[in-house]
Write a structure and sequence with these properties.
The structure is a single chain. This protein is mostly helical. Helix content is 90%, strand content 0%. Helix 6 packs antiparallel against helix 7.
């Protein structure tokens, strides 16, 4: 849990600068990327809500113990509404290029999960660390991608982020189920090895 929170915090802080800079490096010649405006938008979308949420969490303290479930539900509904809007705006684009974009999104996600797991397992040998890193690398803030693409480029540019928001929930659930199955198998094998 501590590793997951640390990685998420670092990724969130780095994204404020890395997202506009990498977008500028990769796409400026074709799109004309407004780096300074994107920096400000990311600060508004990421930093302000995180700081406000932390402050509100400290202020509430133990007075509302069930808030985590309600807040998670609220954020899930908000993301679903944003995705629904993006999908509705892109109905024509989805019909013509939806499968190509979906294939790219799935491939990007699977490479992230595999690279995160493989590199962490190779470097640490620890399955739990490898699983945590895989989730952190493979599951990204596609809501931020959707918001920035919609604001600075077009509804079509937001389509990959919207599709990723749906797909990474599927792949994440499948990955978690596979990890749980693997853990149960290892736990069953350990006593058997001890008796041998």
């Amino acid at each position: 849990m501590a590793l997951s929170i640390t990685l998420t915090s670092i990724a969130t802080l780095v994204s404020v600068v890395a997202t506009p800079v990498l977008t500028w490096l990769y796409a400026d010649a074709a799109l004309g990327v407004p780096v300074a405006a994107m920096l400000i938008s990311i600060a508004e979308i990421v930093i302000v809500p995180v700081v406000a949420g932390m402050g509100l969490n400290l202020w509430i303290g133990d007075r509302w113990p069930s808030r985590d479930g309600w807040c998670a539900l609220g954020s899930s509904i908000a993301i679903a509404v944003v995705i629904a809007i993006i999908v509705a705006l892109n109905a024509d684009s989805i019909a013509t290029m939806g499968l190509v974009v979906l294939a790219a999104v799935v491939l990007h996600n699977l490479i992230g999960l595999a690279a995160g797991y493989g590199c962490a397992r190779l470097l640490t040998g620890d399955r739990r660390i490898a699983r945590t890193v895989a989730i952190e690398v493979g599951m990204q803030n596609s809501g931020l991608a959707v918001a920035l693409a919609q604001q600075y480029f077009s509804a079509a540019a937001a389509l990959p982020g919207a599709l990723f928001s749906v797909w990474h929930n599927v792949s994440g659930a499948l990955f978690a189920a596979a990890c749980a199955r693997s853990s149960r198998r290892v736990e069953r094998e350990l006593p058997a090895r001890g008796q041998a």
